Amino acid sequence: MYGLTPQELELSALIIEALNLPVNPQDVDPEAPLYGGTLGLDSIDILEISMVIAKQYGFMISSDNDNKVEIFSCLRNLCAYVQTHKTK
Length: 88
What we know:
mainly alpha, globular
């Protein structure tokens, strides 16, 4: 178990539900790579996560965003980005 913040735990649960992953939200390492990491996510999964974030938090992470690699590098970075940009 990792020391996820409540926001990281919420986002982890959202990702797991959206992608139907066989893992518990609290078992996601917040600093492990999202793309190609232990969760086995690929570019289609990352796109799906973007769409779920748009629906849940009211903003879209654009594919032409210069920081998208850093944003999606791990759950912790993604959560920090979501927290500073969410509108819902």
